[in-house]
Amino acid sequence: MDARIKPEVREGTLQVTVVGDWSLERPVPGWRDVLKRIRGVRGEPREVVVDAGGIGEWDSSLLLFLIRAKDYATGKGIPIRMEGLPELMRQLLEQRVKGAGKGVGPVSSTSAKPFFEALGRSVQAGVLGVYEWMAFLGECVLGVFRMGRRWRKFRWADSFVAMQQSGAMALPIVGLISFLVGLILAYQAAVQMRQYGAEIFVANLVGLSVVREMGPMMTAVILAGRTGAAFAAQIGNMKMNEEIDALETLGIEPIDFLALPRILALVVMVPLLTIYANLLGVLGGYVVGVGVLDIASSAYWFQSREAIDVHDIASGLIKSVTFGLVIAASGCMRGFQSERSSAGVGRAATSAVVTAIFLIIVLDAFFAVLFEHLGI
Questions:
Q1: Are strands 13-20 and 4-10 parallel, antiparallel or unpaired?
Q2: Distances in Å between the alpha carbon of 224 and those of 272, 279, 354?
Q3: DSSP string covering 212-224
Q4: Dihedral sign (CA 191, 193, 195, 200)
Q5: CA–CA separation, 171 vs 205, rounded Å?
Q6: 171 Rama sector, left if φ>0, alpha if ψ -120 to 50, beta otherwise
Q7: Could you give the strand order of the β-sheet that contains 47-55, starting from the edge strand earlier in sequence?
Q8: Whole-angstrom Cα distance, residue 32 to residue 13?
Q9: How far is residue 334's CA from residue 359's CA, in Å, rounded to a whole number?
Q10: How far apart are CA 340 and CA 325, in angstroms?
Q11: pLDDT category, 87, cuts 50, 70, 90?
């Protein structure tokens, strides 16, 4: 006989009679069918009684129906009795109650964490993150000292491969973004400069903005998403495959073997890519200045050369070196902290990008204040 239910409301008691064979291979009624049939009944039930004495064969479909009944009663805050249940079914329900507490009901307002508790946990997580970051940097510094004593054993080949992947192979995207940023800055500056007949100063604004800020910043952000995530995924995948455990078993420091070659690669390549980005950004402003604003080509280059000096270029390169260190360290650190699963590797890559971009913004603000006080 097919599975059937017969719900009735008598004197405030919702009586649900369950009969038939319950199998996932055939359509079975759900608790929503019970609610539909009692719709229109005046008053809310004060008790739920489920009579399962008439069931035949059953599987998890009946268990799911009874769980929904318990959840309904729990959500309404009313008692529930189940009669005629097989002993095995009763044991399964008890295990579910022990594992899930009071069941799934409407989320009460008291389940939310208090504001100060959430704030405290956030501060605690932030302090722990700073501690982990400083500890990883300390290990990297010790690794640099070890590399100085045994520089012949350094993984130079791995570092050169990382330089190629993070440097040469990043030229197209870095060049395109930098060129477009120069175009955008020139167009926005032209709108304001045209009001005063000072279109020539577009060259000053674009040149200084690109060399001091946008060139290093955009290069770092691109590499944070492109290379930092790749570092975290590579090291996280090695941790999942227990390759890092094998290195430690062999007496090889994972920091020296995996992190330092990648950090050296980005510390070298990010300044070079920044110079390349600066040239493309200035070229983008040149295209707008000469092609749209009708500024003479020689006048634009002369104005750019007068606006940009060695201090401006040096400030951008100092930032880029620090940004490269931050990107590589964030990617490697998150890779070492990755969980041993594919989902953990994905979270590590995402966390590496977020951490790197956050630190890039913080460091850029720090350098802006520092250079202003130093007069650079």
A1: antiparallel
A2: 16, 21, 8
A3: IIIHHHHHHHHHI
A4: negative
A5: 24
A6: alpha
A7: 4-10, 13-20, 47-55, 80-83
A8: 17
A9: 14
A10: 26
A11: confident
CA atoms within 13 A on the CB side of 306: 11
Phi, psi of 23 (to 5 degrees): -145, 140
Q: Name the residue type at position 256.
A: D
Strand partners, 49: 15, 81
d(CA 48, CA 67): 13
Domains of the chain: 4-110 (3.30.750.24), 127-374 (no CATH)
The angle that helices 171-193 and 202-209 make with each other, rounded to 10 degrees, is 140
SS3 16: strand
Residue type (1 letter), 229: A
Whole-angstrom distance, CA of residue 311 vs CA of residue 296: 27
- CB proximity list for 237: less than 8 A, separation 6 or greater: 345
For tokens 């880029």, name the residue.
320
Average pLDDT over the chain, rounded to an integer: 85
- Alpha-carbon distance values, 161 to 57, 169, 258, 346 (Å): 64, 11, 12, 23
Contact (Cβ atoms closer than 8 angstroms) between residue 61 and residue 22? yes
pTM, to two decimals: 0.65
Q: What are phi and psi of 80, to 5 degrees?
A: -140, 140
Q: Mind giving me the DSSP string for 87-133?
A: HHHHHHHHHHHHHHTT-S-PPPGGGSPPHHHHHHHHHHHHHHHHHHH
Higher-pLDDT residue of 14 and 41 is: 14
Which residues have C-beta within 8 Å of that of residue 129, sequence separation ≥ 6?
Answer: none
Q: Does residue 45 contact residue 13 with C-beta atoms inside 8 Å?
A: yes
The predicted structure's pLDDT at residue 120? 84
